[in-house]
Amino acid sequence: MKPTEQDIKQALLHPDPIVRDAALQYFALSFSRDPGIWPVAVQAIEQYGWDEAFSAVWLLQNLPQTDETLLWLAELLDEPNRQSTTSLIRICAMISHANAELLGRHEPKLVDCKRLRGDTRQVILEKIRLHSVPADVCWKELEDQCERHKNDKDAEQFDFARASRLAEAISREGDRHADKVMSILSQKIESFEDNPLLWLEIFAAQLAGLIRLESAAPLLAASLKDDHGDFMNEQCTEALTRISGEAAVEAIARDFHAAPSHYRLYASSALRNMRGEHVVAKALDLLEGEEDWDAQVKFIGTALANLDARGLRAARDLEMDDLPQLRRGLIATAVLSGEDFPELEQLREAEQEHQAEVRQQQEWLGGLGASGKPVVNQTVVRPVKSYARVGRNDRCPCGSGKKYKKCCMGKEESK
């Protein structure tokens, strides 16, 4: 049995943090468009606190906000001495990820928040401005930016955040620009030397995802196979996840077993973050013909990410029901599906032991100075919990648009 989406939404309030995390990831990693998720998440944060509600609370920025939740965040900024610096950064990032129309409705309230970060205020104002700029003008700005940087292969020289905001502004017109997106993605690129497509194709892929352009799915999968670099691969993966329908699933699955390893890595990640019966069915179908152990784990993980009890059975059949990398998914799926899973208590105990070891390690590392000797009478800055699950190549949760490794990862490590 698979829980309903309403059941999963209510699981955001579940007393077990593993279940709460699984519920949040169910919606956030698939870029759900349901505006009813944020209000329930607010209840969870008020009930359990920022640091305990969800281990990756920053994922909420993937979800659509409401007027009420945006104003709730703004009010938190105006509460003196209540929010830590880390919480303020997190709240500002979430505000900056709200859609431009929503930000525009509450511009005076937001920009007057005394504790709003200056860079967040700048992002808000630019998103509001771009919302009133014709999409054709935004296209021109995006193309001009890509033209100026056509010989800059160093991503540090390219303003990803601004280009991404231009793509968001264009996407408000839906599939009006679908033909242009398809034209860019269809081009066979012989060389990226002196070629604005070096950058432009990345934002065409972003647009395909933002407007859920199903006809682009085969082109996105083909680009993944051709391996146009990390940035394009990551954008294609996200776009396929957003599209998520039958066309995207079939595009991913086509020739999967014979595909190069980099493609299998990105494509299986996209599949894992998609939701629906067709996704689970395809993952289990691919599992049957798969010999690679890592791929098998990912296909089972896809069923578990969908909180589908078939993932429990598949894990048991392949004797993977005690794997650490599947453990949290197994626990959450067993709880929410109601499936009889005798290993549940054993998994809970193993996870509790693991978390205790992690806490002990963090306390030990937090108590060491740069020399490796214990710190005495000195304030120690702990690692930021909400960043703990961010991958090196994921977008930084601070909202800059850069990769985590190019942004806040170094700052956190230096602490």
Quick synopsis:
With 415 residues, this protein is mainly alpha-helical. The chain has helices at residues 5-10, 17-28, 37-48, 50-53, 67-77, 85-96, 100-105, 107-111, 118-131, 135-148, 160-171, 178-186, 197-210, 217-226, 230-243, 246-253, 261-273, 277-288, 293-305, 310-317, 324-337, 344-366, 408-414.
Largest β-sheet summary: none
Average pLDDT metric: 88
Order of helices and strands: HHHHHHHHHHHHHHHHHHHHHHH
For the record, give the distance between the C-alpha atoms at the N and C termini, rounded to a whole number.
45 Å
Percent of residues in beta strands:
under 5%
Oligomer: single chain
Q: Per the principal axes of the C-alpha atoms, what is the gross shape? A: globular
- Which regions contain 5 or more consecutive residues with pLDDT less than 50? 369-389
Structure summary, number of beta strands: 0
Structural category is mainly alpha
How many helix segments?
23
Fraction of residues in helix = 55-70%
Radius of gyration: 22 Å
Structure characterization notes:
The chain is built from 23 helices and no strands. It has 415 residues and is mostly helical. The longest helix has 23 residues, at 344-366.
